[in-house]
Specification:
Keywords: Hydrolase, Signal
Organism: Roseateles paludis
Strand order of the largest sheet: 1-6-7-8-9-16-13-12-11
Mean pLDDT: 94
Low-confidence stretches: 1-35
Strand content: 15-25%
CATH topology of the domain at 98-126 and 397-599: Glycosyltransferase
Shape: globular
Protein name: Glycoside hydrolase family 95 protein
InterPro entries: 6-hairpin_glycosidase_sf (IPR008928), 6hp_glycosidase-like_sf (IPR012341), AFCA-like_C (IPR049053), Alpha-L-fucosidase (IPR016518), GH95_cat (IPR054363), GH95_N_dom (IPR027414), TAT_signal (IPR006311)
Radius of gyration: 27 Å
Number of strands: 32
Pfam families: Glyco_hyd_65N_2, Glyco_hydro_95_C, Glyco_hydro_95_cat
Distance between the termini: 54 Å
Largest sheet: 9 strands, antiparallel
Length: about 800
C-alpha cells in the first residue's frame, strides 16, 4: 500500500529517537579474490517493527515470496506465488483491426491524429480493455500471547545470507529471555522456512492462522498442517479459473500442538519450525490443469527428516554462490552505522557513500529473490511481492521500459541466471503474438505491445494512447541480446535467434513508406505514453521505434552470421535498416522525440519517459566518439526533460547521465532516488506507489558509473563522481566475456584484475581510462593484472 509522505516522515522521526549503532570495518585494499564485505554493510536493519507493508522486509526464491513485518506479540507474513493472477486463459480477438489499419495510417499521415486515435480505440483495443491483475496468495498470522515489555528490539535482512530476522528480549520473573524469529525462502527446496526460538526452555507459545483473499476453505491436515485453498477471482469479463493452495506445516520441538480458533496452537515448545509451500494450477498460459495440492505435498514430503540447519545450509549455499560473485565498496561515512530508515532519512546530508553500495546489493538481492531459473515468470512491476487484489497497474509486466529495466543489472553483476524467466516470457509472447500479427496485420512473425500478463496476452491494452506501440517484444529482445554480448554463449544465441527472426519478420512486413520523408516507418505507433502537440500520442516513426529497429535488424543479421544461417534474410534486415529515419536534432539543439520538431510544444516537457534516448542507453548507438553531434543533442534533450521523475524514471536518468560521462550529475540524480520521497523505509522504490524497476534501474546506474563496456571497449571509471574518490568493486562483468576487479583512490584506478571467462571470451580486451588505454590479449580463463606506477597502469 502506498504510504503518505507525512506518515513516512513521522515513522522516520520516531525511529531517529533511538541511539543504537553498528561498527563498520574500514575500506581495505583490493585482493585477487573477493574479500568479505565490511561487517554490517550488506544488510537492512531497524529498531522497531513494520507498521505498513512498505516497511516490511522481503524474502523470495523466485517463485514464492513473503513480506516479513517483524511484530512482537503478532507477526504477519504476507505471501505471494508468482503465477497467481486473476482470471484464466484468454486471448482477446481483434476482428476489426486489419480492416481499419489502412484508414488509421491514412489519418496519421494526413495529420488527423485525434481521429486516428478514436478509430484505433474502436478497432485495436479489445474488450475488456484491461489485463489481469497479480494477486496475493495468502496471509500467515502468528500470535504470541503474553509477550510484552520487549527491549533491545532489532529486525534485519541479511542480503548475503538471505535471511530476515527479528530479535528482542523480555524479562520473565526477573530473568531475561531472548526471542528470535528467522524467515527465508529456499530456492533449493522451493519452500519458505520460519524458525521460532527462545533462550528460555519450553517458552514458545504461538497461535497460527492462515487465510487468503480468495479462499474457498481453510482446514487442518494430520493435526500439524494448515491448508487454505481457493481460486483466482474474476476480473472484468474473464472468469477466475486458476486454483491455488497454500499450506503451512508445523514442527514443534517439545510442547504440545493442538487446534485453536480455526488454526493451530503450539504451547511450551523449545523451538518451532514452519514450512510454507504454495502453488497454483498454472502449467502454461493456456493450461491451468495443474494440481497445487499434489505439488505442495510433494515439496513437503521431500523435506521429511531434514533439519532446519540442513535446510538453511542448502539455501544459503545456493544463494551465496550467486550473490557473492560481486561486491562493491564505496567507503563508509558517519551515517553508515545507522539503521536503514535513518540512513534514508539523512541521505540528503551527503555523508553516506555506502548507501549507494547497499542499494546495489539490495537490487541484486531483489533480483535473485524475484527471478530464478525454473519458472516462466520474470520479475513483475513489484518483483514478486504484492498485498493488494487490485495492485497499481495490475502489477504485471509493462514492456515499454519497466520489465526491461528490471534486468539491467543482471549481466554486469554476474546474475545471468536470473534472465531465464525473461527468456521464457519472450518465448511465450512469440507464440501468442504470432496470432495477433496475423489477425491484426496479416503479417508473419510476432508482435507484442506495451503490456502483458500471466496469460501472455499480446494484444494492445488500456487504450490506443498507451497501448498501440508494436515494439514491446523488440525491446525485450535487446535484453536477451545483451546476455549474448556478456556471455558469448552460442547455445544461448541459438535459442534466442528464432525469437529475433520472428520479430524482424513482423517489422519488415509492416513498415510503410512515409509520404513526406520517403523513409520506412512504423505506423501506427507512438513514443511511449507521451502526447505530442496534436491531441494524441499516435504518430508514424517516432525516434525510439527507429532506434529499436536499428538494433533489431543489426543484431538479427549479426546473429545469423554467427550461426551461419539465413544469409539472405540478414541482408534484407541490413538493407531495410538503411531506409529507417535517422535521429534528428531539433531547432533548439535537442535530440527529437518524433520525426517532426515537436518536442518543445509537447504538453509534458518533463515527461517521465525518455524513450527517444534509448539510443544512448541501454543501446550504444549514440556515443561521444562515434556520434558527437547526437551525443550533444541527447544531453540537451535530457537536460530539458529534467531529473525529477517517478522512481524508475530517475533510475533511467542515472544510467543516461552515466553514459553522458557526467558522474557528478548522475550522483545528484541518484541522491533524488535515495531520499525518503523516493525510497520507502524498506528501501523499496517509491514510484510512488512501489514499483521495483526503480530499484533495478538505480542499481544499474551505479554500476554504469564505474565501468562501461559498449562499442568494443571497456571504460574504467567513466562517470565517477567526486563523492566516491576511493572504492573497490569485484566481479563486475564486461561485454566480451570479461570479469573485472578494480580499486581506485584519488579518483584514479590503482589496480585492475581482468579475467576472461572460460568459454566464449573475445580475443582482445580494449581498456580505456582517464589518461590512458591498453589492449589485453587473453585466452579463455586467463587473468591479467595492471597496477599503477606513477601516472601509468602497467602489467603487474
Amino acid at each position: 500500500m502506498s504510504t503518505p509522505r507525512s506518515d513516512r516522515r513521522r515513522w522516520l522521526q520516531q525511529s531517529l529517537m533511538s541511539t543504537t549503532a553498528l561498527t563498520c570495518a574500514p575500506l581495505t585494499t583490493l585482493a585477487a579474490t573477493s574479500p568479505a564485505p565490511a561487517a554490517g554493510t550488506q544488510r537492512l536493519w531497524y529498531r522497531r517493527p513494520a507498521d505498513e507493508w512498505v516497511q516490511a522486509l522481503p524474502v523470495g526464491n523466485g517463485r514464492l515470496g513473503a513480506m516479513v513485518f517483524g511484530g512482537i506479540s503478532t507477526e504477519r507474513l504476507q505471501l505471494n506465488e508468482n503465477s497467481f493472477f486473476a482470471g484464466g486463459p484468454y486471448a482477446p480477438p481483434l476482428p476489426k483491426a486489419r480492416e481499419a489499419l489502412p484508414k488509421i495510417r491514412q489519418l496519421i499521415f494526413a495529420g488527423q491524429y485525434a481521429e486516428a486515435q478514436k478509430l484505433a480505440d474502436e478497432t485495436f483495443i479489445p474488450k475488456p480493455g484491461g489485463q489481469m491483475a497479480y494477486q496475493p496468495l495468502a496471509e500467515l498470522s502468528l500470535h504470541f500471547p503474553g509477550l510484552e515489555n520487549a527491549a533491545g528490539y532489532e529486525r534485519s535482512l541479511d542480503l548475503a545470507g538471505a535471511v530476515a530476522s527479528t530479535s528482542f528480549t523480555t524479562k520473565d520473573f526477573g530473568r531475561p529471555s531472548t526471542w528470535t524469529r528467522e524467515v527465508y525462502a529456499s530456492a533449493v527446496d522451493d519452500v519458505i522456512v520460519v524458525r521460532l526460538s527462545s533462550t528460555r526452555a519450553k517458552a514458545l507459545h504461538v497461535v497460527l492462522q492462515l487465510s487468503a483473499p480468495h479462499q474457498q476453505q481453510v482446514q487442518i491436515e494430520d493435526g500439524h498442517t494448515l491448508v487454505v485453498t481457493g481460486r483466482s477471482p474474476d476480473q472484468g469479463e474473464i472468469s477466475g479459473r486458476l486454483p491455488f493452495e497454500c499450506r503451512v506445516q508445523v514442527r514443534a520441538t517439545g510442547g504440545r500442538l493442538r487446534s485453536e480458533r480455526g488454526g493451530l496452537a503450539v504451547e511450551g515448545a523449545d523451538e518451532v519450525l514452519l514450512l510454507i509451500a504454495g502453488a497454483t494450477g498454472y502449467k502454461r498460459y493456456d493450461d491451468v490443469s495443474g494440481d497445487p495440492t499434489a505439488a505442495n505435498r510433494a515439496v513437503l514430503a521431500k523435506l521429511a527428516g531434514r533439519t532446519e540447519a540442513e535446510l538453511r545450509a542448502a539455501h544459503q549455499a545456493a544463494h551465496r554462490a550467486l550473490f557473492e560473485r560481486f561486491s562493491l565498496d564505496l567507503g563508509q561515512g558517519p551515517n553508515a552505522a545507522l539503521p536503514t530508515d535513518e540512513r534514508i532519512a539523512r541521505s540528503t546530508e551527503g555523508k553516506d557513500p555506502g548507501l549507494a553500495a547497499l542499494y546495489v546489493d539490495y537490487g541484486r538481492y531483489l533480483l535473485l529473490a524475484s527471478s530464478r531459473a525454473g519458472t516462466r515468470h520474470p520479475a513483475n512491476l513489484q518483483g514478486l511481492w504484492n498485498e493488494r487484489t487490485n495492485p497499481p497497474w495490475q502489477s504485471k509486466w509493462t514492456i515499454n521500459i519497466n520489465a526491461q529495466m528490471n534486468y539491467w543489472p543482471a549481466e554486469a553483476c554476474q546474475l545471468g541466471e536470473t534472465l531465464e524467466p525473461l527468456v521464457c516470457l519472450v518465448e511465450d509472447l512469440a507464440q501468442t503474438g504470432q496470432r495477433v500479427a496475423r489477425e491484426a496485420y496479416g503479417a508473419p512473425g510476432w508482435v507484442a505491445f506495451h503490456n502483458t500478463d500471466v496469460w501472455r496476452v499480446a494484444t494492445p491494452t488500456d487504450g490506443s494512447f498507451w497501448g498501440l506501440w508494436p515494439m514491446g517484444g523488440v525491446w525485450l529482445l535487446q535484453n536477451l541480446w545483451e546476455a549474448w554480448l556478456y556471455r558469448r554463449d552460442v547455445a544461448f544465441l541459438r535459442r534466442i535467434y528464432p525469437l529475433m527472426k520472428g520479430a524482424a519478420e513482423f517489422q519488415l512486413a509492416t513498415l510503410v513508406r512515409d509520404p513526406k520523408s520517403g523513409k520506412l516507418v512504423t505506423c501506427p505507433s507512438l513514443s511511449p505514453e507521451n502526447a505530442h502537440p496534436f491531441g494524441s500520442s499516435l504518430c508514424a516513426g517516432p525516434a525510439c521505434d527507429n532506434q529499436l529497429l536499428r538494433d533489431l535488424f543489426a543484431h538479427t543479421a549479426e546473429a545469423a552470421r554467427t550461426l551461419k544461417t539465413d544469409a539472405d534474410f540478414a541482408r534484407q534486415c541490413l538493407a531495410t535498416r538503411e531506409q529507417l529515419p535517422p535521429d534528428r536534432v531539433g531547432s533548439s539543439g535537442q535530440l527529437q522525440e518524433w520525426q517532426e520538431d515537436w518536442d518543445l510544444r509537447a504538453p509534458e516537457i518533463h515527461h517521465r519517459h525518455v524513450s527517444h534516448l534509448y539510443a544512448l542507453f541501454p543501446s550504444d548507438q549514440i556515443t561521444p566518439e562515434e556520434t558527437p553531434a547526437l551525443f550533444a543533442a541527447a544531453r540537451n534533450a535530457l537536460t530539458r526533460r529534467g531529473d525529477d521523475a517517478t522512481g524508475w524514471g530517475i533510475g533511467w536518468r542515472i544510467n543516461l547521465w552515466a553514459r553522458l560521462k557526467d558522474g557528478n550529475h548522475a550522483h545528484e540524480v541518484l541522491a533524488l532516488l535515495l531520499q525518503p520521497e523516493r525510497s520507502y523505509p524498506n528501501l523499496f522504490d517509491a514510484h510512488p506507489p512501489f514499483q521495483i524497476d526503480g530499484n533495478f534501474g538505480g542499481a544499474s546506474g551505479i554500476v554504469e558509473m564505474l565501468v562501461q563496456s559498449h562499442r568494443g571497449r571497456v571504460e574504467l571509471l567513466p562517470a565517477l563522481p567526486s563523492a566516491w574518490p576511493t572504492g573497490r568493486v569485484q566481479g563486475l562483468a564486461a561485454r566480451g566475456g570479461f570479469v573485472l576487479d578494480m580499486d581506485w583512490a584519488g579518483g584514479a584506478v590503482q589496480r585492475l584484475r581482468v579475467q576472461a571467462r572460460k568459454e566464449g571470451c573475445a580475443e582482445r580486451c580494449e581498456l580505456r581510462w582517464a589518461g590512458g588505454q591498453a589492449t589485453l590479449k587473453l585466452q579463455p580463463g586467463q587473468v591479467a593484472v595492471l597496477e599503477r606506477r606513477g601516472d601509468q597502469l602497467i602489467t603487474a
